[in-house]
Amino acid sequence: MGIPGMESRRIPARPDVLVKLQSMPEEFDDQERYQESLRTRSEQAIGELAQALLDSQVLENAVAAAFGAREKAVEAQQAAMAALNLPSAGDVERLERRLRSFSQRLDEVEDQLDRALREVGQLRRDLPAQKPEKVKT
């Protein structure tokens, strides 16, 4: 896609702004207009390319095949890990959650046991003070 009026020639090994401006057609004397025109045409070309890719049946088939291959690879990995009796990441995460839950419950039981032991200790201290009188028979 060439720009109207631009010669198709190589820019010297030392490109600089003056060389580029001299090779521009007269209608693009103003660098800002040239850049805006270039930006607009680039955006349009990218949009057309994106639309062509979205409409492409070949791309759609390739993406579907890639996702299918990914699923098969995941299934094969799970089967291999199961055959080796290795846990998956999900298995490890579930075990971690269960251990945390168990740890919290154990902490609660320890707290209740500590309260019960304090109460028993208090009862033992209170018992000698309340000795019943011996009944003579």
Overview of the structural elements:
By secondary structure, the chain is mainly alpha-helical. The protein is built from four helices and no strands. The protein has helices at residues 17-23, 31-55, 57-83, 89-129. It is elongated. The termini are far apart. Mean pLDDT is 81; it is low at 5-21.
Keyphrases for this structure?
137 residues, mainly alpha, 0% strand
Percentage beta strand: under 5%
Mean pLDDT: 81
**Computed Rg:** 41 Å
Derived structural class: mainly alpha
Query: Largest beta sheet, briefly?
Result: none
Q: TL;DR of this structure?
A:
The chain is mainly alpha-helical. Helix content is 73%, strand content 0%.
SSE blueprint and pairings:
Layout: H1 17-23, H2 31-55, H3 57-83, H4 89-129
